[in-house]
């Protein structure tokens, strides 16, 4: 039996919040932050986190670039 995705609950909460708020992300910042925290705790173990992990990698690239540091090759 497959294991339950550790961040599925947070992913469902995001969907509920977005639907209830006409898909305005700004209204769902708290649940989005909970998802980011869950993804950070479960790196590589949650399929629900793929977009959040990609977002984090992009944010890190921007940070390194602003500091004048070349990002590592992927």
UniProtKB/TrEMBL annotation:
Similarity comment text for this entry: Belongs to the CMC4 family.
Gene3D superfamilies the UniProt entry points to: CytochromE C oxidase copper chaperone
Superkingdom of the source species: Eukaryota
Keywords: Disulfide bond, Mitochondrion
Cellular localisation: Mitochondrion
Gene source species: Zosterops lateralis melanops
Record-annotated membrane-spanning stretches: none
Disulfide-linked positions: 7-38, 17-28, 39-49
GO terms for cellular component: mitochondrial intermembrane space
Principal location class: mitochondrion
PROSITE patterns according to UniProt: CHCH (PS51808)
Name by which UniProt lists this protein: Cx9C motif-containing protein 4
